[in-house]
Structure of D-3-phosphoglycerate dehydrogenase:
Amino acid sequence: QENKLYRILVSDSMSNEGLAPLLESNTTECVLKNVKEADDLDSYDALLVRSGTTVTEEVMDQMPQLKIIARAGVGVDNIDIDAATKRGIVVINAPDGNTISTAEHTFAMMISLARKIPQANASIKGGEWNRKAFQGTELRGKTLGIIGFGRIGSELSKRARGFEMSLIVFDPFLTKERAEELGVQTGDLDEVLSQADIITVHTPLTKDTKGMLGMENIKKTKKGVFLINCARGGIVDEEALKHYLENGHVGGAALDVYEEEPANENELLAFDNVVATPHIAASTKEAQLNVASQVSEEVLQFLQGMPALNS
Ligand code: MLT
């Protein structure tokens, strides 16, 4: 029986160990090269990406052999799903491989905000010894508002309980039964906005969530609120956030994701009370191994004729 050799383009950097199923299979050939640099796009059967590659209709037009696009991560907002569907290309992701890493990073960002750790770190390393400037707030007894209560939101809630925080959750897809089972208090968006001391978003970026924390909604929050976005740039409207940081309504923000990435020119970075990281919530050894191996195994199975699970 003829053994077809499938060509796989790995466009963003990924865990090599995670890619092992594809690297070691004698039915696949992996090429590690960015889509933008590849001049042989027409020869690939599968494309693996993280968030660094935008898979547009134009890219797909150059890849007539393409059968499957795999996102080694959760958010598929960098892939034109409609264009893929039109061409019969399957899109898969790794929905749970980086849940814990992202929940932990969000928690780290929350503590960083509350205790001004990045600012204090920069200060002492800059030769200062300024104990007054870095008085913080405790998390205990504060209300954490979680918008989007999927895998990451619910892992975060477990950690918040350990810190004796109160929780209020908004998620239109969360049933009452499931909320009771998880023991969380739910509210509508306005209730979360008006009751929470700290608000964190854990939704995908869709037309419904884009700009969800914008001029109108941020106005409904408590004065001094902390806002956290470790989900997707654009869920928190950056112009609005800037406005409310400038007038002091928002007490601080922690951002891992931005409307435009890389975000080196982002004006929000200039605020003292903005804690920022460069889209690294999922960047742990564990998460990167998980997501790369999850999509590698699925791509291999799909090319061998099995159905795609996480499509
Ligand atoms: C994701 O959607 O999984 C994260 O943003 C992580 C990544 O971009 O790799």
In short: The mean pLDDT is 96.
